[in-house]
Amino acid sequence: MAEGRLTGLDASFLHLENDGAHMHVAGLMLFDGEPPAYERLIETTEARLHVVPRYRQKLAFVPFGQGRPRWVDDPHLNLRYHIRRTALPRPGSEAQLRALAGRVFAQPLDRDKPLWEMWLVEGLEDGPDGPRFALMSKTHHALVDGISGVDIVSVLFDATPDPPEPPDPPPPWIPRPEPTQVELLAEALLERATVPREAARSVRAVFRGPRQVARSVGEGLVGVGAMAWAGFRPAPRSPYNTAIGPHRRYAWVRTSLDDIKAVKNALGGTVNDVVLATVAGALRLHLQRRAIEPPQTLRAMVPVSVRADSERGALGNRVAAMMAPLPVGEEDAQRRLATIAGAMQGIKRSGQAVGAQVLTELSGFAPPNLMAQGSRLVSTERFFNLVVTNVPGPQFPLYLMGRELREINPMVPLAKGQALGIAIMSYKGRVNFGLLGDWDAMPDLDEFAADLHASLAALAAAAGVKLHDPQGTSAKMPHRQRKHVAT
Hints:
The chain is α+β, with helices and mostly antiparallel strands. The protein has helices at residues 8-15, 38-48, 79-82, 94-106, 181-208, 210-232, 257-267, 271-289, 333-350, 352-362, 368-380, 445-463; strands at 24-32, 57-60, 70-73, 83-92, 116-124, 132-140, 157-158, 248-256, 298-305, 319-326, 386-391, 399-400, 403-411, 420-427, 430-438. The chain has twelve helices and 15 strands. The strands form three sheets. Strands 4-5-6-1-13-12-7 form a seven-stranded mixed sheet. Strands 8-15-14-11-9-10 form a six-stranded mixed sheet, with helices on both faces. Strands 2-3 form a two-stranded antiparallel sheet. Helix 7 crosses helix 12, helix 8 (271-289) packs across helix 9 and helix 8 (271-289) packs across helix 12.
């Protein structure tokens, strides 16, 4: 296979990008201190770009769709295009920052250029410790899965405020010539002709290690069956599954990792179970406020990493999925958590994630046109109600050009028919929920942020835990919402 060819999973994120759905992951980061000079930020990025060479590359598309796209060097790379500078009217509030993030996250990335952007945001009002600024990043899902741990922003971070200077300057970058359309087509057709040889090689491997292969195949088939069983049953109807437009709203909720662990220790389950129970409780409150009777269960698609330790730091996607039930019909917060904990144990035993990985790997053998149609078909079916992704981050401070990173607010994209997405990331003792909603379908996204805080408060009350409340939500909790805290 040609160097840099997209995998079947990577390419699927390109096929899913239509009708207002933009398949980039993103994050909004808040830093202490004065913002760095724009030119200095560009120089620092350029000095470290060799660590992630994929960020110097763009997609080359095979004529007539006869092969998956592949990455090629961009001879016209311009960091001033990819690194933008903007400002809020001083003193910029968090409400204004949320509105800006919603507009930036709603814009698709240009497929004729490397698929990433950074936005330096100045003018933000002071925080508890003085001046601060924000950095927003966008990276297409075809480039990075958000779990591998290396992207354009992370290579800019340091573990100390005064890192040592690199011993040598980075090597000069000379882009390789772009392949012609004829070369791309010929290369793809040649690869297709050689696939049977690879299949034969795999068959020979079966006879060299029959027991090991049989065990792997058996586990895979069980997982495929579990995944198929989850997929054949459509998720319940909900206001979170509707036609979406191109515009977005963004909000976040701040919580404490110690609080979530304390709830877990008192009531059982895992940290991820507590997070899912918090989401389930918030969805229940949100539906009730809209005068909608909550169904017994909604279904969340929960991405899980299948990246081996040896693959840590590699770009591209190595994720599978589990379909997690969210018991929004359950009134008692403690019973919601117990239901989720038991269900997640059963899902893990069923091998759903293994099955999703097997199906993903098989998609690499499908003709590109067929794979494109399959991706669009999946996006039209209601297999799940929303995506909830939980990414563990570092629990030690990080620095950008000597300025401490205070918090990370993640973003997961909305697929077609998905009006709400929830991304969670932990960093330095804090767990932040990043909420992305379709502009028209989720006009009350700020109130849903308050619902999340109220849901966690209900779990904490059941566990006898006093919340630290690290500044709460990005929007003030509406007065009428506070009566639901004990639900």
